[in-house]
């Protein structure tokens, strides 16, 4: 009898320790909100450029891949190089690709540490 009591005690302890079913923090009908990321696009073939009103190039493809994984909505903003830098500084765009790193620029902008 003592053997069964110990077994029942540990079985009860095990059932108590098993986590309750997980539930979503938000209802299923809650719409998913995408983060809008504004990307400055200047003519820098084949890295990034505008063709027929659409952003194209290696970086455009890489950014779209990241956007799909991170639930971002990309908004490509065509601009000349100097204008893109001004817009980045002003906060009119969020991201600009293919900027050469310099210590002076590192004081003003955040650079990624990953090589593309």
Verbal overview:
It is a single chain. The chain is an alpha/beta fold and 116 residues long. It has a single domain, classed as 3-Layer(aba) Sandwich (D-Maltodextrin-Binding Protein, domain 2), CATH 3.40.190.10. The protein is built from 4 helices and 5 strands. The strands form 2 sheets. The protein has a 3-stranded parallel beta sheet with strand order 4-1-5. The radius of gyration is 26 Å and the shape is extended. The model has no long low-confidence stretch (mean pLDDT 84).
The CATH homologous superfamily corresponds to Periplasmic binding protein-like II
Largest sheet, order of strands side by side? 4-1-5
Question: Proportion of β residues?
Answer: 15-25%
Q: What is the helical fraction, as a range of percent?
A: 25-40%
Residue ranges: pLDDT <50 for 5 or more in a row? Answer: none
User: Major sheet, described briefly?
Assistant: 3 strands, parallel
CATH architecture: 3-Layer(aba) Sandwich
Count of spatially separate domains: 1
What string gives the helices and strands in order?
A: HEEEHEHEH
Ends apart, CA distance between termini: 68 Å
Tally of separate helices: 4
Question: From the alpha-carbon coordinates, what is the Rg to the nearest angstrom?
Answer: 26 Å
